[in-house]
Design goal:
The complex is a heterodimer of chains A (313) and B (295). Chain A has 313 residues and is mostly helical. Chain A contains 12 helices and no strands. By secondary structure, chain B is mostly helical. Classes of the chains: A mainly alpha (313), B mainly alpha (295).
């Protein structure tokens, strides 16, 4: 276990280093002089000089990177140009909202995707399999922002059942919060559910063909026990770890979904920052999501390692 | 000819058909893939012949069709400036397909050489490239594309560059894995032994063998890239008005949802249909090239 962890961490650190270099490098993409870009329309020479000194733009690039990364390691992500607040404070404010959305979406994805995958595998080649496959392809191919717009059209505009926007914090009004979150969570969840379904289906098909399933049946166990206890538990292992990989997809989707439903999370933060040329915020959000994704993958690897005794040699 | 094959179970010599032809035949046996191919070709025709097919100019406003309901003259209705939604959807195919294809070509142009280098060289070079690729894959695809498009500035070209770069790591990984699988084969060793240069071996001997896998992944990535372009245009980072694109049409449409829902329905339906068909085609190609792979 220790050796595995050490090896895993040895890969993790350079990856994080490269992530930070890529994100820092983004500002090199700015056309022209970043100080002029940040100073806005007026191009006041004094303002440009101030920005240059404040953001160390007058220093060599590796010094700039060093100052930037050492700031971040101390929790200093810079300051938002637009709201004049530390970026770290904005990130901490918005993070719980996106985590709630991600959690609810994941729940919906698991509740739809895994049963659909199991049913489709058990009826391999017959109509429930076809239906599940069609729904799966549909889920993979629908752009979630369009699904969001269509759901608002149906449930808010036509039926008037759910609010189209208007996020409330769960600590203020839990019911209102769930009402505002259910549509965006469904929109995000269905896309991921399709991926879960496909993985569950292929994992189940593989397990069902194995010898121990034949043995379990030969022993005369009930089919319910064979499927629930012997097959599904083994098939679930790769599916759950693949779930961690889908988390990145979830965060990508959240950007647009939050935009459509006006949910004040990470997605809305980065889009607003993009349009206000608030680059420190853009970098902060990207760095946070990437780090979260890397750590989740590490946890998934550890979980996979723990539940799979064959790897512990 | 096919009857003859069925009649005699003894396999004919494999020299009669090239692997590519056999794969193609398997592809055409799959209904989903054929449907996907047909729709994709239809949309390509829309994109190429938009001026001839579209009933109206996609940019000229017509006040009489202002947010007009779908009628015989305007089957998909009119938008907020009275432009014909059908004509805009047809012209929008151009931006979407072009963006999808160009960004995947860019991703291939970056991914293949880097992947070949990584897989072929191994050692430290491989280690550095792979850590860098991991780092890029750690940033969620769309967020990376949005961040790059934000810094590059909003335009369709920049959106394509951003999507292409964000998609490149997938091809680096795929090429590298394929190279590692084939480089131990005897024919590569033979090519080495007769004195071919590593560059020649990489491009003449390894690349043709990994081409099917790259083609399958490209088709599936075009689907992702089309959604990404629509997403960026939806956020205002891609195609700029008044030029039509499905994403930017949806962006405008969301402000007129109660009085002109058709503005949102048709562009979205087009994205869905094109993406679905690229996915069907990609799945079909995968099964055709690798009959063992059955999900």
């Amino acid at each position: 276990m220790t050796r595995f962890l050490i090896r895993r961490l040895a890969i993790l650190l350079p990856t994080l280093l490269f992530v930070s270099i890529i994100i820092f490098g983004l500002q090199q993409l700015l056309p022209g002089d970043p100080a002029i870009a940040m100073a806005g329309e007026e191009r006041d020479p004094q303002a440009i000089a101030d920005i240059r000194a404040k953001y160390n733009l007058d220093k060599p690039i590796w010094v700039q990177y060093g100052l930037w990364i050492s700031g971040i390691l101390q929790g200093d992500f810079g300051e938002s140009i637009r709201i004049q607040l530390p970026v770290s404070q904005l990130l901490l404010e918005k993070l719980p909202v996106t985590i709630e959305l991600a959690f609810l979406s994941m729940l919906i994805a698991l509740l739809i995707g895994i049963p659909a995958g199991v049913i489709s595998a058990l009826h391999n080649g017959r109509w429930p399999d076809y239906v599940a496959n069609v729904i799966g392809l549909w889920g993979l191919s629908t752009p979630n922002f369009w699904l969001g717009i269509m759901m608002i059209l149906l449930f808010s505009v036509h039926l008037g059942w759910l609010p189209a926007s208007g996020y409330v914090s769960p600590t203020e009004d839990l019911w209102g919060n769930l009402q505002a979150m259910i549509m965006p969570a469904f929109v995000l969840g269905t896309g991921i559910a399709a991926v879960f379904m496909r993985h569950t289906r292929s994992a189940m098909l593989q397990v069902m063909a194995s010898d121990y399933i034949r043995t379990a049946r030969a022993k005369g166990l009930y089919e319910r026990v064979v499927i629930g206890k012997h097959a599904f538990r083994n098939a679930a292992v790769p599916v759950i770890t693949l779930g961690a990989l889908e988390f990145g997809q979830l965060l990508s989707g959240a950007v647009l979904t939050e935009q459509i439903f006006s949910i004040p999370g990470f997605g809305k933060l980065i889009v607003d920052a993009v349009f206000n040329r608030d680059y420190a915020v853009v970098q902060g959000v990207v760095l946070c999501t990437a780090t979260a994704y890397i750590l989740l993958n590490l946890l998934a690897d550890i979980a996979y390692f723990l539940v799979n005794p064959r790897l512990r040699t | 000819m096919s009857e003859a094959v069925i009649a005699s179970p003894v396999a004919k010599p494999a020299t009669e058909q090239s692997p590519a032809r056999r794969a193609l035949r398997r592809l055409f046996r799959r209904k989903g893939a054929v449907f996907g191919l047909a729709v994709v070709l239809l949309f390509i025709a829309f994109a190429l012949l938009a001026e001839l097919i579209a009933p109206y100019d996609p940019i000229v406003a017509d006040w009489s069709a202002l947010r007009g309901e779908p009628t015989l003259e305007h089957p998909f209705g009119g938008d907020e400036l009275g432009r014909d939604v059908l004509s805009r959807v047809i012209h929008g195919a151009r931006a979407s397909l072009f963006a999808g294809v160009v960004s995947v070509v860019l991703a291939l142009l970056i991914g293949i050489p880097v992947g070949l280098l990584s897989g072929y060289a191994g050692g430290l070079v491989d280690g550095v490239i792979m850590r860098f690729t991991d780092a890029m894959l750690a940033v969620p695809f769309l967020i990376l594309a949005i961040a790059m498009a934000a810094f590059l500035g909003p335009s369709l070209t920049n959106a394509m560059i951003a999507i292409g770069i964000a998609a490149a790591p997938i091809f680096v990984r795929l090429t590298r894995a394929q190279v590692q699988a084939v480089k131990v084969e005897d024919y590569i060793e033979a090519a080495h032994a007769v004195g071919n240069s590593p560059l020649r071996i990489a491009f003449r001997h390894i690349l043709p063998n990994i081409w099917p896998a790259l083609m399958v992944q490209s088709t599936l990535t075009i689907a992702t890239a089309i959604i990404a372009e629509a997403s960026l245009s939806f956020l205002g980072l891609g195609q700029q008005p008044p030029e039509p694109s499905w994403g930017s049409m949806l962006n405008t449409a969301k402000d007129y949802m109660s009085d002109a829902p058709w503005m949102a329905v048709y562009p979205g339906l087009s994205i869905f249909l094109v993406v679905l068909c690229f996915n069907l085609l990609g799945d079909g190609l995968r099964d055709a090239f690798d009959p063992r792979h059955k999900e």
